[in-house]
Amino acid sequence: MDVDSVTPTIVKRPLLSIQCDWDEALREKDGTAWISCKEYGKNSIHGKLTSVKSSENELHTIEASDRFKVENVTPVSLCLSHEDPNCRCEFFAPNKIFTNSSEKCCKFRSTGTVLRNLEGHIWDVYHCSFFPSGMVVLSAGADMQIKIWAADTGQAVTDAAVVDRGKNIVSVSKDGSARLWDCGSGSCLHVLSKENGNINCCAISPVDIDVGVPENPPNEKEVGTEGKLLLLGSESGFLKGVGLQSHQQIFKHQCESAVNCCCFISSTSVAFGTQDGKVWLFDLRAR
Length: 287
Hints:
24 strands, repeat, WD repeat
């Protein structure tokens, strides 16, 4: 047989689709979710799933319309079919610890109970996901903002700085913490500073001053932290310098107003802006 003359047989199976948040919708009493079947060369068939009897955490009886059939229901999956024997699919419930919301916030859930609202977006939230460490949450919304949250406190990250070539980053947040992260694993390597008020800004640079010596050997995942100074500006009005590798406080300068931004001018001087509209130059050698 001439292989080149063989015409391949293409099997066009119908495709089942379901509402993306069906597991949430069908947990509600009389909750509904849409279902559709698309067969090649034909118009799509649209139907509706209705939760006839449900409890808070478990699906019980689901009814389907328009010749769709519910084959099986479990707390984490839903098996559906249509009249075509090839049209059958099992849908697994998304593992949503954080759920999107139209209430301008992310909801931290456990078995259906809201444990914490992460408020900060000004429009609907479209996406939420955990970093691999399980300690940080990323959210994105219709307000064109991407926010990073501390999962344990629910506080938003206010600023971040890249260390060296990007193996590590430092984040500061409204819970008053400055944290050093490993980008590869998403894990928090150190809490570099912990204050009572919000930390508004941060900056990192190598400097020509003594930034201390670490008491213990640096973490093997730290890259490029030696000889660098971390600047922190706070809502309570201080500018603080911390040795990035030593984790030691190098200086703390109190201002009359909140420090909103900071940057390095050179290896010995920095600039920072305060809430009262002033911009300051600070000589690190005269601290």
